[in-house]
# Entry
Amino acid sequence: MKTKFLVGGAVILIALGYMIWAGVTQSAVYFVTPSELTAAPVAGKAYRLGGLVAPGSLKWEPRTLDLTFTMSDGRATVPVRHKGAAPDLFGEGRGAVVEGQWTADGYFKASLIMAKHSEEYKAPHDLKESQSKTLLKTLEEPKR
Amino acid sequence: MIPELGTGALLVALALCLYGAVMAALGARRGRTAYIESAQHAALAVFVLVTTCILLLAYAFLTFDFSVRYVANNTNLGTPFYYRITAVWGALEGSIVLWSWMVALYTLVVVLRHRTSARELYPWVLTVMLSVISFFLLVMTVAAPVFARSVPIPADGRGLNPLLEDSGMITHPLALYLGFTGFTVPFAFAVAALITGRVGDFWITTTRRWTILAWYFLSLGLLIGGWWSYHVLGWGGYWAWDPVENAAFMPWLTGTAFLHSVMIQERRRMLRLWNIALVILTFSLTLFGTFLTRSGVIASVHAFTQGAIGIFFLSFLALVVLTSLALIAWRWDDLAAQGVLDSVVSRESAFLLNNVLLVAAAFTVFFGTVFPLLSEAVRGVKVSVGAPFFNQVNVPLFLSLIFLMGVGPLIAWRRASLDNLKRNFLGPVLIGAVAALVLRLLGVRSTVAVVALALTLFVSATILVDLVRATRARRTMGERTLPALGGLLLRHNRRYGGFIVHLAVLVMAVGVTGSQAWSVHTEMTLQKGEQTELGGYRVRFDGLRESQESNHGKVTGTFTVVAGRGAGDVLEPAKKFYPQEQSPIAYVDYRLGFIDDLYLVLGDFARDGSHATVKMQVNRMVSWIWIGGLILTLGTLLSVLPERRKIA
# Structure
């Protein structure tokens, strides 16, 4: 009786171990900075690239849904292309993490953009609600 | 004023808590009832004091008392009344207050319910629970001082995180924390059982309802969290395998295992050690989850900011685990099982396998969640595994669990004969097989979806077989069908409550399967008046309008469903602009349906309203998940009713 259960347990353990191993090798995503990526880019590998959206680099083409920008960490820059509108917290001069792949054509093809929330809300304390319309406009400007 | 009053109340509560914990233990050791009574009074006073803290905090929020830093950080003069209440527990410090209040509340109920019924265990239960509260009070005074003063007092606060301005934020944290903290009770009983050496079945039968309650609230918290994610976050999903979600899911998995394994101990006197270990593991995972989400070790969309709190939780977790292990080692000989497994084909082994799979699932979730930390420590590179990993590993586990859900309740105890198997499972297996075939012929390509739906039908059929047979048996005794069914549910409410919960899980499984297999989405820019088609819906963009709300500005897009299902409906996804935020927040609009949901997120737009980019999704069967939640509630209620089995 006992051997049956031991064998059963071993089978389950091995199956689980295999599934975890296969899962990890197939869905591992490497965290890199722009300097790390430019130092040793591997086309086709899944990366999560973290850095700053370089000011003046953001371009948005609503017709074709092409979003292009440059990620920077002060030392190196990586050109990024994405299909689709930017998420809410995304903007020039702000932190962002993009997930995707390095392509042989020399750009990073993002499949997912995760904008970084600043750790604490840096609220402009002098701003009243009535002024939020003004804010609303300034917020839109970079996207045009 | 509030900061001083609050801090004072906290310190007195902490002192009383420690006093009560020591007195209860001394009372138990020396057999002094007076000591235990004194500890009870301390527990009552702690509850009153922590309640006072919450009320003080709520008062500070309602009166915009920005001298309290926590209030200043999480509200401003524009925050609506309703959200000033939810802001009490909306951020780190407040959530710890709520947490300790709930443990204090549970302690009070334990005092009221168990002070006479569980004489031997009870004082130690009190000691454990008061120690847990002491820890949270310590965190509240040292690591995350909720009543800290703001210097200087600002004229206005920073405002609440806009994502938290949602009705889900009142129910989601409450349910989730009631679940998390609820496991403190069975844990305290388990530790008390170890200390007193009464490791038999008493602690398990005493805490059965407690465990179900905690499990139910945790389930509800997870579901409401999914609902919040679905209708607020605007990515169209309800579960992302985010570390915060995983943190709550792990204790749910082990808690579910515990709910099942205690039945084996009650019936067959087996698995004593396993049950004690499971409940300790579950409680530890609730602490680990808090550590994970509050310490900032793992980046997550909705983790709170980091601070000294991480080291507190880690130390307490280590203390809990080490103490528990030492106690288990001490009582090792008493924990030996009395019953033995007779056969591989029996209800015991079905339950055992269910437990192994649930714990395996919890382990894979744990592994995937801490993987970035592991890989950084071992290989020096930061690697994460995302949703694909969790799905790939857990789908086979969950499918097997659904299969066992059909087998477990019907298979015979000890040793199932071929006849028993045929009688119970021949019909359901045929139904499942035919269903799989039909689904294939209907053109369902996803193998996972075919298997999942076929299994769901198989399990539903087993439940039906059982109900029909039992109702018939009662009918032959002269009852009519409906009263027979009703009487059955009430007399054997534990069994049928469990069946209804299983049914709820099946309904949710259909929802998850359907939404994974058949949802469609697109993103495009529409000119004013232009229309697009997706999944049977034809939607037209009719323009934008600006408006001003109490604490934010809003740009709303108007989209009309012009053909197909739901024609004439107008959906108004928007972007909200909060003055305290650097970016707008999307406000999703959706139309829920039994079969599919139409779900719109406004992306970018032209200021003159000439065009807008919209993310459009048709999510299938998602409503089944929420419906499953309602059925789950019914099943849980039935199973905690007092048993009314007729004494034959």
Notes: Residues 218 and 252 of chain B are 7 Å apart (CA to CA). Residues 300-305 of chain B have pLDDT under 50 and may be disordered.
